[in-house]
Structures are given as C-alpha cells and as structure tokens.
Amino acid sequence: MGEKFVIIHGGAPTAVMNASLYGVITTAREHGVTILAAKGGSEGLLKEAFIDLGALDDRVLESLPFTPASAIGTSRYQIDEHGYSRMAEILVKHQIGGVLFNGGNGSMDSCGKLARAIETHPKGRGIRVIGIPKTVDNDLAVTDHAPGFGSAARYLVSSVRELCEDVASLPIHVSVLEAMGRNAGWLTASSVLAARDGLGPHMILPPEIPFDEERFLDTVQTLIGRHGGVVVVASEGLRHRDGSPIVDPIFEVGRSVYYGDVSAHLSSLVIKRLGIKARSEKPGILGRCSIAWQSDVDRDEAILAGAEAVKALIRGESGAMVGFERISDEPYAIKTILIPIQEVMLCERMLPHSFLDPETGAISAAFATWARPLLGSPSRPFAQRIV
Question: Are residues 130 and 248 in the same domain?
Fold first, then answer.
C-alpha cells in the first residue's frame, strides 16, 4: 500500500485554487499516493472529515482547473496550540504521511505551526508538511508571485480598461474603482496595465503610500480640468499617514477584515468637497472568482505548484512552501523553488520602492514589466478612438 497525503484549503479562494488541487490529485495518482481532502479546511481535519479524492470522476477532475473557488471547501478557522497537537494526533491515527496546506499568509503560518507540533509528537516522525501558495493579494514573502494574483489582476486590468473607455466616451464624472489587497498594493498597482492613450486610469492609490485627502482632491480637480472624466483605482486598505484606515473596517475577526467602502467614501469626498459628479465601483470578490478572466499563465502555474508540492513530500521534504523564482521577463520564464516556511509565516510582502514613487505614488515601468506576463494571453485590442 502506497503513502497517504491530505490537502487542506485555507482562507479566501481564488480563480485557480482548484487548478492547484488538480495538480495535487493528478501527481498523487501518477505516484501511487492516496490523496484525501479535509472537508471545509482545517476544521475538517480536526473533525476527521475526509474526502477520498482518488475516487473522483475523471470528468470532474478535468474540469477543476476551469472552476473557481474551492471544490473541497475552505475556511478561516482559528487553530490554537491544542488544535495543532490534536491535528498531529489525527494524522498519526489515520496513518497520513504528508500534509499539503494551500493558502496565503495565515495558511502558511498554520503550515509552520503544524510542522512544529508534528516534530514534538512521539509518533510524528516521518510526517511531512508542505505549503502551496495562494493569494490574490500577492503578499507572500520570498516567492516572485503567488497563484491567484495573475487572474485577479487580469480581471481588474480588463475591468479598468473597459471603465476608462466608458468614462472617456461620456467625460462628465469621476469614477472610483476599489481594488482588493488589504495591506499590499500589488493588485491595485496592476491597473497601470490598463493605460491606453491617456484614457486612464488617471490616479492609482496603493496602500503603501499614505493617503492625503487634500492632495487627492487637488489632483482630481486638476485632472477633471484636463480630461473631463477621471478614473481612480484605490486600494481597499488605504490608510492615513498615522496608519489609521481612511474608512473604519465594518467587521474584524483575527486577521480577517471586512473593509469599509473606500470607493464610496472617495466618491462622496469628490461630490461634497468639489461639487463634481462621482461614482463608485467595488467588484469585491467578483475579482477573485472570475473564470471568464482567468489567466492561462496563472492556471498553469497553480497546477505546477500543486504538482511540485506532492513531489516534495514524496522526496521527504517538509517545513517548506513551493515558490517561484523569476528567470526572465521577456521571454517570461520561472522555476519552482522550496522556501523554508519560517521565511514565509505571516510575513507580508509589500510593493517595493523600485515599483513605485513614494512621493507621487506613480507605478513604475519596472512593475509593468514584472506584472504583464502574469496576466496571461493578451486580450483583444480595442479600436482606436475616432474622436
């Protein structure tokens, strides 16, 4: 009888989380490994609620890379020290030799803590733990980027391109589109790839640059005089110079934050302070679950990350996360690496200074060169403007 592994999904899903699951299942099958899933995330493991993925119908399996969210369920379940010890006991009980955590910062923290709990368990010897990166925020440390980001960026860039065309056609208002990203502005910054012929976006506001209300309003006033209509892309995590959010979060549980409506707040400022018509747009989770705008590069790399994680477990690796190292931008090429989990655990990766101007907040050409390949196949170009 071959080895037995279990995969756990953690945190918010993405457009390619199931693609990583596909990589895990197919690679496990190739190597004669039994693969189980913890139903509904970490809590499923603690409840010993397992799904045998080896029995999965081939038609379902082949559809996974093109299916959004999590087919096995995910959660933000909070685990305490006793919970990790209990997890180790359950792994021993069910003779599970490997654990795959697919998630973002919180999941990689859980990955490391479970690895430590296993080390101290008297019968935990030989049980390995590997992380599979997943986040639309792209804020995982060390890795060049993470699966989930490319597709979310493609959705945002495509939406901003369309919005810019609309506003330029009827240039009578300011349109503020809110991007996800918590504390890191990778997704917000990606909207720079929507730029075309001066149509916008005219202002990009990542959370790494402190928000200055007066400067924002002055800039909007100038841009209105120049263009008539203005498109602003703002991060949900915008903060004042003292670190306080510009809109108070409406709900917080641990690291999970439901932000206030930043786009509506900025639109209201424009209306009340400048007397200019303004509208707000907040795609929210639509941007992380869109299969219509899924990046083919993101999908392929998500499959690769899942496959490499299984191979790492088979080799006896543990306490690490699969990551990507950029080999070149043009032609785009990467290779997979294993990153010690201690270097990743709850270590948020912000936009570096080389990718933005700390004074103006302008997104650099270097960022555009870095980000462009992750969006996948080029979208069909729009017609040149007639007027």
Answer: no
**What string of H, E and C letters represents the secondary structure of 302-371?**
HHHHHHHHHHHHHHCCCCEEEEEEEEECCCCEEEEEEEEHHHCCCCECCCCHHHECCCCCCECHHHHHHH
- What's the CA gap between 304 and 327, in Å, rounded? 16
Q: Is residue 266 part of a domain?
A: yes
Q: What is the pLDDT of residues 118-138, one digit of tens each?
A: 999 999 999 999 999 999 999
Q: Which of 109, 137, 139, 298 is catalytic?
A: 137
Q: Is residue 382 in a domain?
A: no
Q: Are 72 and 36 in contact (CB under 8 A)?
A: no
- Answering whether pTM is above 0.85, one says yes
Question: Looking at residue 179, which CATH number applies to its domain?
Answer: 3.40.50.460
Ranges of the chain whose pLDDT falls below 70: 1, 253-257, 358-359
Please check whether residues 59 and 202 belong to one and the same domain.
no
Please give the tally of structural domains in the chain: 2
CATH number of residue 133's parent domain: 3.40.50.450
pLDDT in tens, 355-373: 987 667 789 999 999 999 9
Residue 214 domain-assigned? yes
Give yes or no: 80 in active site.
Answer: no
pLDDT at res. 1: 55
pLDDT of the residue at 357: 78
Q: Which domain holds residue 256?
A: 149-291+350-375
Residue 325: strand, helix, or coil: strand
User: Whose structure tokens read 């909007």?
Assistant: 220
Pairwise CA distance, residues 188 & 172, whole Å = 24
